[in-house]
Amino acid sequence: MMRLIRRLLIGRPLHNREMSHERLPKWKALAIFSSDALSSVGYGPEMIAMTLAVPGLLAYGYFGPVAIAIVLLLAIVTISYVQVARANPGGGGSYSVAIKNLGELPALTAAASLFADYTLTVAVSVSSGTAALISAFPSLLPHEVAIDLIVLLMILTIINMRGVRESSNIFAAPTYLFIAGIFALIATGFWQVFSGSDPLIPAAAAARQPLSWGILFLCLRAFASGCSSMTGVEAISNGVPMFKEPEVHNAATTTYWMSSILGFMLLGISFLMIHYHLLPEENTTLLSSLAENIFGRNVIYYYIQITTMLVLYLAANTAYNGLPPLLSILARDGYMPRYLGFRGERLSFSNGILLLSLFAATLIVVFAGSVEHLISLYAIGVFLSFTIAQTGMVIHWRQVQDAGWHWRAAINGFGALITGTVVLVIAITKFMFGAWIVLIFIPLMISIFRKIKHHYADMADQLHLPMPDGASLQIAPRGKNIVVMPVASPTIIVAETLKYAQAISDQIYAVHIATDEESARKVRDKWLKWNPEKVELVTIYSPYRIVVQPLIRYIEKLEMKKRPEDFITVLIPEFETLRWWHRLLHNQTGWILRTLLILKENVVVSTVPYHLKK
Amino acid sequence: MMRLIRRLLIGRPLHNREMSHERLPKWKALAIFSSDALSSVGYGPEMIAMTLAVPGLLAYGYFGPVAIAIVLLLAIVTISYVQVARANPGGGGSYSVAIKNLGELPALTAAASLFADYTLTVAVSVSSGTAALISAFPSLLPHEVAIDLIVLLMILTIINMRGVRESSNIFAAPTYLFIAGIFALIATGFWQVFSGSDPLIPAAAAARQPLSWGILFLCLRAFASGCSSMTGVEAISNGVPMFKEPEVHNAATTTYWMSSILGFMLLGISFLMIHYHLLPEENTTLLSSLAENIFGRNVIYYYIQITTMLVLYLAANTAYNGLPPLLSILARDGYMPRYLGFRGERLSFSNGILLLSLFAATLIVVFAGSVEHLISLYAIGVFLSFTIAQTGMVIHWRQVQDAGWHWRAAINGFGALITGTVVLVIAITKFMFGAWIVLIFIPLMISIFRKIKHHYADMADQLHLPMPDGASLQIAPRGKNIVVMPVASPTIIVAETLKYAQAISDQIYAVHIATDEESARKVRDKWLKWNPEKVELVTIYSPYRIVVQPLIRYIEKLEMKKRPEDFITVLIPEFETLRWWHRLLHNQTGWILRTLLILKENVVVSTVPYHLKK
Hints:
Two copies of one chain form a homodimer. Chain A is mainly alpha-helical. Chain A has 23 helices and five strands. A five-stranded parallel beta sheet of chain A has the order 3-2-1-4-5, sandwiched between helices. The two termini of chain A are 23 Å apart.
C-alpha cells in the first residue's frame, strides 16, 4: 500500500546508469538558471518602496536613485561572476571557490550563507508567488499559508524527489512567458507615459526631503532591501558544466543576457512605479498594482500575475537544484551527515530535498507566509557569499598569474569590496529588522559543521580496524555464550524463547524474580512440572517488589565469573501485540532492561519475536 | 544521581512485611474520611448562588429553598450509606457492591463514574484550595495554575508516592481546625444578625420572582450545582475495615457525625450568605466574602482562608486513598492494565497515583484552574455511583432476607430513587454546561474496560502452555542458529560482532550490499585481507541504491532453505554514540531493518553494543 503510493508519487527506482549528463543550449540555460534572478523583480522594487514610504511620503523621491544604485551594483556583480565562471569551468559555487583558495573558515561561512539563502529562496519565492496569485484573486487570501505549503510540499518536493530533469522544456516556458509579460507591461507603460498628457514624473512622486543623516540611513536601508533583487545572479556560474561547448563562453554570454534583462526590467518597473506614485498596499503586490494601473483588470493583467506566480515558484525550484548538491559536497567533506550525500531511489539527493522542504515550510509557517519579514533575512547571506566568492577569486588569480591576471584580480577585488560594503550596509541598516538572525545563524552553522567534522574524525579513529600483517596474525580464543532468560511464569512465549536459547547456547539460566513467596512457589511448581529440557530455574526473592535491579545484579555476578572472551545474552521473552494500544496494557520491564543493559559491553539483549494473533 | 533524588523524594524501598494494618479511632477517622465532604462547603453554596444570580437578582430569593433541599438529600444519602457500611464490613465502594449484586455493566458504570469523580475531586479540590488562598492574597492571582500544579505534582503526588500513612495525626489537624473556624464564623455571624438592628433577612435578599417554568428549571440547575457539596459522603462506607472494633457501629456513628456537621455548616453558611445578600465575584470565593463581611480582614479571616485551603488540599489527598486502590481492584479483575495493581517500592500503588496526578493536572491546565467549569462535570458521576450503590443494596437485602430486610431495602430503594432522580435532574439541567462530557466519558470508559478485559482473555488463551502428561512428553528437535551479519565495511565493530557471531553459531554469512561496483571491490579486498576467521563475505549488488530490501530478500531466501526448527539471527554491527546528537549523523538502517524484521517469526534481530568513547 505505502509502496504503491510511493511509486505513484515519485516513480520507479532508477538504475545508477540512468544518471543524466545532458548539456543545455544557451536559450534553455537562460530560462532555467535565471528564473531566480529575474523573478526577484516580483518583490525587489516593492521592498524599496516599502522602506521609503514609511516616514511620510517625501522620502519616496529617493526611489529612483536607489533603484539606479542597485542596477549599478548588479553590473559589478555580473562582471565579477563571469570571472568566477571562467575560473571554475567545473562549476561549484562560493563554497568550492573558497575551500580551494581561502581555507576552511571562509568556505564554511559561504556554506552557511548559502544554506540560509537557499532555504530563504524557497520560502520567499513560494510566498511571493502566492502573493502574486492573491493579488489577482483576493478571495484566496485566507488560504495563503495553505497554498504556500501545498506548492512547497505537494508540488516542489515531489517533483524534486522524482528528480525530473531540470533540462525539460516545461521549465523553460514560464521564464520566457514572464519576460514577455513584463516587457509588454514596460512597453505599454512607457507608451502611456510619453503619449499621455501627464508630466513625465509627477511632482508628488518626485518630491524629496532634503538629504539628512536620517534620510540617508533610510535610503541605505531601502538599498539593502532592494538588493534582494539580485539573488540568483550567481546561479549560472555554479552550473557551467551543464552548458554546451564552449561552456565558459556560453555561460558568460548567458550571464550577460540575464543581467541585461534583469537590469532593464528593474529600471523600467521602478520608473513606472515612481511615475504612477504607487505605494505598497496590504495583500496586493506592487507589481500587481502597476499592472492594474496600466492594463486595468483585463486578460493581460491576469497573464502577468499568473506568469509572475509561475516564475516565482520556478525560482523556488532552482534552490532544489542548488542546496541538495551543496549539502552532498559538504557531506562528502564531512561537514554534514553522510546520508545527505547519498542519491535516493530516483538518483536525486532525496534527504537533502526533504531537509530543504522541511526548513522552508517551517519558515513559512513561523512567518505566516509574510514575505517582507523573510526578505529581511535574505540579502545579507547572499552578499556575504558574493563577497567570499570574489575574495576567493582574487587569491585564485594571484596564484594563476596568467596574462592579464592583474586586471581580473582587480575586477574581482572591486567586486569583493563593493559587495562587502553592501554586507556591512545591510547588517547595520537592517540589524533590528532580522539581519541579526542571520548573524547568529551563520556562526552557529559554522560551529555545527565543525562539530560534525570532528565527530566523523573521532569515529574513523575508533572504528579503524588494524590490518593484520603476517607476524601478528593470531586468532583470539573463541568465546562461549551464556544465556540469561527472565521468566515471569511459564508460558508459550517462554517455551519458544527457550528453543532459541538452546540454539545459541549450552549454558542457560532461567531466572524468576519473585515479589512474594507464594507466587515464587507457584512458578517453581509449574516450571518443574513442565520443563521439557531440564533447564534450571533460578528464583530470586525480591521483597521490595523491584524486578529489574535484582536481575541486573544477577547478570553482573555472571559477568564477573565468566572468561573475558565469553558473552552473556539476555533473552527477554516478549510478544508483539496485535494492536498498538495493547502494548500499553503490559509492563515495560523488557524495555527498561534493554535500556539499562545497553550500557554493558559483552552483554547482548535480544528478543525472539512472538506475535499475538488476536 | 537520579537514584539519590528518588531516595530523597520518596524514601527507601519498603519490605513487604512493612505493610500497615493500623486501626483508626473515631475522632481520627472522622477527620481523615470527611475532609472531602466537609471541604465542599468551600464551593457548594457558591455554586448555588452563581446559578441563581445569573438572570437578574430576583431568582436569588430561591437560595434558601435550594439549600434546604440539598440538606434533606444529604440526610437521605447518609442513611443509605450507613446501610452500605453495615452490609459491606469488608469495605469497598459502589464498584464492589455492584459487581457482587448487579453484574458487570452497573459495576463498570460505577467504576467509570468513580474514576471521573476521583479525578475531578483532585482537580476541583486543589483549584478551590488555591482559590481560597488567592481570595486572601489577590496578588497571587497570576500564579493560580502554577500553584495548583505545585500542590498537585510536588506535594500531593510525592506524599502519596512515599505512601505516608493516612492515619498520621498531621492529616487530622486541618479538618478540626477548619471545623472550628467555620463554626466560629457561623456563631459570630448569627450573633451579629440577631443582635444587630438589621431585619433578619433583608428584603433585597428575600425578594423572589414568581415561580415560572423558567425559574423552576433554574432552581433545579442550582440544586444540581449545589449537589457538589455532597461529594465524599460515601468515603466512610468504603473504609469500614480501617475502624476500631466494633467497626460497623463506629463507622455508622462517624457517618452520622460527619453528615450532621456538614448539614449544619451548609445551612449556617447559606443563611448568612442570604442575609448579607452576597453575590459571586470574580477571583474571590463567596466564603471569603462572607468571612470578610463578618470579621473584616483580621487574623480570624486569614485563619479561615488558610484552614479552608488546607482542608481542600487534604480533600484532594483523599482521592489518592480512593482511586489507586480502586484501580488495583479493576486491574486484578482484568479491566485495567495489570501494572496498576502492583505496589511500588513504598508499598503504595505508585502507577495509579501517577495516573491520577497526570489526569488531574491535565484537567487543571485545560480549564486553567477555573473551578466552576470543573464542578459542572462533577456532581453527575457522584450521584450515578450513589444510585448504583443503593440499587445494589436493594438486591443485597433481598438476597440476605434477614430480620427487617424489608425496611432496609426500602430505605436503600428510596435512596436509589432520590439519587437517581438527582442524576436525571443534573443530566438535564446541566447538559449544556459540561454534563455531556461525563455522559460521553462513562460509556467510553466502559468500552475501554471491556476491551482491556477482552485483550487479557485473548492473551491468556494464546500464552497458555499445555502441560505435558507422561505420554505426550516429547522433545522437539533442537534447531540450529544461522547468523546473517550486514557489513558496510570492515571496522572494529564488525570484528567485535563477528566474535559474538562465532559464539552463537557455526554458520555465519557476512553480507555486503554494494551500491556501486567500485565500493564493492574495495570492501571485498579489505575483507579478504583482514578476515581472521575465514568467514565468507556475500556481496549483493544493488544498483538502485536500496540497502534494506536486498538484505531482507536474502534473509527470506535463507528462511526458505532452513529447517523449520532453525533460527536466523540478524546481527547488526552498530555502535552507541557518546552524545545523543551524534546519532543524527548516522543513518538509521539498523533501526529500519529491526522494524521490518520484527514481523518475521524465527528471525531474531540483535546488536552487540559497542560504545564510542569520544
